[in-house]
Amino acid sequence: MKIKHIFILALMTIPMSSFGQEIALQLYSLRNEMPENPEKYHQMVSSWDIHALEGGGGYGLSKSEYANLLVKNDLRVIGVGADYNQLTKTIAPIVAEAKKYGAKYVTCYWIAHPDGPISLDEIKVATALFNEVGKEFQEHGLTFLYHPHGYEFTPMKKGVVLDYMLENAENFGFNLDVYWIKMGGGDPLKIMKKHKGKFPLLHLKDRRIGTADTQDGHGDVEDNVVLGTGDVGIAAIIKEAQKQGTKYLVIEDESSRSVEQIPLSVAFIKQQLEK
C-alpha cells in the first residue's frame, strides 16, 4: 500500500469529536447513487466518518424507515432546503420538513430570477424577504441561511450586489459555497474575514485549476475536484472557519467521481484541522 494511502487511512480513523468543526455531506453529492440503494450509500457515508447530512428527502422510504436508516448508521440531518418561491408564500411546509428530521438549518440555494447575473433590485427584494422569513424561522428554533451561487457578482457603484446582501443580512446567515464564490469572481476568504460570524455552514467544494469563471450560476460539474487540489484555497478557508467557529464544513462534490473523491476530501479536511 502506498504511503499516501496509509496516511489517508490514518486520518480517516481520527474521530470528528477531536475537532471544533464537524464534517458534513450535502446529499446532492450522491444524487445518482442514493435512489438506487439508499441503505448501501448511507452505510458508506458513515464509513467515511461523516455523520451530519444536509438534504434529506427519504428516497422513497417511509418517515419511520428513513429515521431507522439514519439511526442505524449514526447519521442525522442538520439542514434542509427552502425553495425561494415557497418562501414568498408560507414557510410552514419548510418548517415541517426541518422538524421531521430534527434539522436546525434551512438554506435557500437559488434566488428565482432570469438566467444570468442578478440585479441589485432583485438582490434587495431577496434580502428583504430573507430578513422577514429569517425572523419567522427563528421563532421555530431554526436558522435561515442563503447559499450564494455565483450570479451575485454584478457590479454596483461600490463593490458587487452580494455585498449589499452581506451588509444587510440581519435575521439570516450564509451557507457559503466557496466554489461558487470563486466561480463568480469573488474571494471566499476575503468575504469570510470581512463578515465574520455570518457563516455557520460552509460548502467546501474545490475547482479544477484553469477553470474559467462564470457569473450565471452554471458550470461543468466535472470541474469539482478533491479538496485541496484545486484553485479555491480550501486550506486557508478551513483555517479561517476554525477561527470563526463555523460549525459545519459541508462537502459537496457534484462530479461523477464523488464516491471516490469524498473520502479523500474528508482526509484533507482532517489534515487541516489537525494543524
Question: Would you mind describing this structure in some detail?
Answer:
The structure is a single chain. The protein is an alpha/beta fold and 275 residues long. It has a single domain, classed as TIM Barrel (Alpha-Beta Barrel), CATH 3.20.20. Helix content is 41%, strand content 14%. Strand 1 (22-26), helix 2 and strand 2 form a beta-alpha-beta unit. The two termini are 25 Å apart. The mean pLDDT is 94.
Largest sheet entry: 8 strands, parallel, barrel
Number of helices, where a helix is a run of at least 4 consecutive DSSP H or I residues: 11
| Gross geometry | globular
Give me the CATH superfamily.
Divalent-metal-dependent TIM barrel enzymes
Highest-level CATH class: Alpha Beta
Low-confidence residue ranges: none
Task: Count the beta strands.
Answer: 10
Structural class: alpha/beta
- Give the termini separation: 25 Å
The residue fraction in helices comes out at 40-55%
SSE order, as H and E? Answer: HEHEHEHHEHEHEHHEEEHEH
Average residue pLDDT: 94
Radius of gyration (CA) equals 18 Å
What order do the strands of the largest sheet run in, or round the barrel if closed?
1-2-3-4-5-6-7-10
In quaternary terms, these chains amount to single chain
Number of domains: 1
The CATH topology turns out to be: TIM Barrel
Percent of residues in beta strands?
5-15%
CATH architecture label: Alpha-Beta Barrel
Explain briefly what this protein structure is:
The chain is α/β, with parallel strands linked by helices. The chain is 41% helix and 14% strand. It has a single domain, classed as Divalent-metal-dependent TIM barrel enzymes (TIM Barrel, Alpha-Beta Barrel).
